[in-house]
């Protein structure tokens, strides 16, 4: 009870504006901390999804990288869980693809480089995304990609196969067909990725 009361007071520090994204169990709002010009993405999640929220918080806290959405705080009120996250003005990749239908080759190369570097960083921090899709990739004000949506992420140590097929015993065939799950790259296929620039280099 005390935690809920503290969280309610903490949420009162923010102005909450229009919804900028919706999921089956969540809504993301544009928000601003009162008496500042700091804007955030404020994610409201149904309490039935508590385990997924805690998983997402764990991954975000453990992974500090420009290609991963920045986490600020989370709170629990009577009916919802709230995540205070980095606000990306470019929206998500799915919306961009729906608007433009196709992208220039240079943009595709830059986006691909961003994703590879971000996923490699995620793996180095001991996690596998397991729900990579355009709606879980955000675009910041500089046109760089940021991974989000870590509710289904798993620890590398829990991935049973090193050949790219994690155990999916608790995932239905329909859900499985809609997800991309990346496992760590086997040693014989690993290569050094130092930066986004090195991936785009044609030398």
How much strand? 15-25%
Largest sheet: 5 strands, antiparallel
Sheet/helix structural class: alpha+beta
Number of strands: 9
Uncertain segments are 164-172, 174-196, 198-203
Cα-atom Rg, whole angstroms? 18 Å
Question: Care to describe what's here?
Answer:
This protein is of the alpha+beta class and about 200 residues long. Helix content is about 30%, strand content about 25%. It contains 6 helices and 9 strands. It has a 5-stranded antiparallel beta sheet. Strands 6-9 form a two-stranded antiparallel sheet. A hairpin with a 5-residue loop joins strand 7 and strand 8. The longest helix is centred in the middle third of the chain and has 20 residues. The protein is globular. The C terminus is likely disordered.
Topology:
Blueprint: H1 2-11, E1 14-22, E2 26-33, E3 39-46, H2 50-62, E4 71-76, E5 80-86, H3 93-100, H4 105-124, E6 127-128, E7 137-139, E8 145-147, E9 154-155, H5 173-177, H6 196-200
Antiparallel strand pairs: 1-2, 2-3, 3-5, 4-5, 6-9, 7-8
State the gist of this model.
This protein is α+β, with helices and mostly antiparallel strands. Helix content is 30%, strand content 24%.
From the structure above, extract its key features.
about 200 residues, alpha+beta, disordered C terminus, 9 strands, two-stranded antiparallel ribbon, five-stranded antiparallel beta sheet, single chain
